[in-house]
Amino acid sequence: MSTKVKIINQSNNSLPEYKTAGSSGMDVRAYLNEEVKIKPLERVLIKTGLFLEMETGMECQVRPRSGLALKQGITVLNTPGTIDADYRGEVGVILINLSSETVSVENGDRIAQLVFSKTEWVEWSSVKEASETNRGEGGFGSTGIK
């Protein structure tokens, strides 16, 4: 079963799409008038020309593409970026170049992926202490690596 999301595409690129039957994310493309060169450790905001309208209770996460990360050192800086259901502006992707080489991004390049998910609002319940667990306060590697 799929959920309908309204989209405006002001770019000259195709809509984001799932590439395989088992894909969780849809590739999103850069919408640029000219090539953008990203120097090592530089970050840039790349526009997509896309505007979304989701129902309340959903979010769209902007995630890196693994191939770009491995092969070119390009990743999404605020991973995962969240597009809230009530945001109506253009979808932008913050890319950072973690390689030692300058990387070029051109119009139509697949720069990130969009993953949609349902969200929950919580209601706080103030307490004096939390219940005990086997893990307790162990964090940041406390369970080991093997």
Strand content: 35-45%
- Overall 3D shape: globular
Please tally the helical runs, counting DSSP H or I stretches of 4 or more residues. Answer: 1
Question: At the fourth CATH level, what is the homologous superfamily of the domain at 24-118?
Answer: Deoxyuridine triphosphatase (dUTPase)
CATH domain fold name of the domain at 24-118:
Deoxyuridine 5'-Triphosphate Nucleotidohydrolase, Chain A
Estimate the helix proportion, in percent: under 10%
| SSE order | EEEEEHEEEEE
Q: What is the radius of gyration? A: 19 Å
The CATH class of the domain at 24-118 is identified as: Mainly Beta
Secondary-structure-based class equals: mainly beta
What are the segments in which pLDDT stays under 50 over at least 5 consecutive residues? none
**Overall number of strands:** 10
Biggest sheet features: 4 strands, antiparallel
Task: Give the strand line-up of the largest sheet.
Answer: 1-4-8-6
